[in-house]
Design brief:
By secondary structure, the chain is mainly α. It has one domain (3-52). The protein contains three helices and no strands. It has helices spanning 3-17, 21-34, 44-52. It is globular and about 30 Å long. The model has no long low-confidence stretch (mean pLDDT 94).
């Protein structure tokens, strides 16, 4: 795994750990409804998280 992938994986874990229970439930519903087309990296919530943390 490349350094970029490791950084993204770390940020995804951080993002999920900071979610409220309602946000986690919404993510699970999105995963179930979208199936393989679900991509957390493209989600509005994750993009806002990156902006808020100045990761972009």
């Amino acid at each position: 795994m490349s350094k970029l992938n490791k950084d993204i994986e770390k940020r995804i874990k951080e993002y999920v750990s900071e979610m409220t229970p309602i946000e986690r439930k919404a993510m699970e519903i999105a995963k179930n409804h979208l199936g393989t087309s679900f991509n957390i990296e493209k989600s509005n919530g994750f993009r806002e998280f990156l902006k808020k943390k100045n990761y972009n």
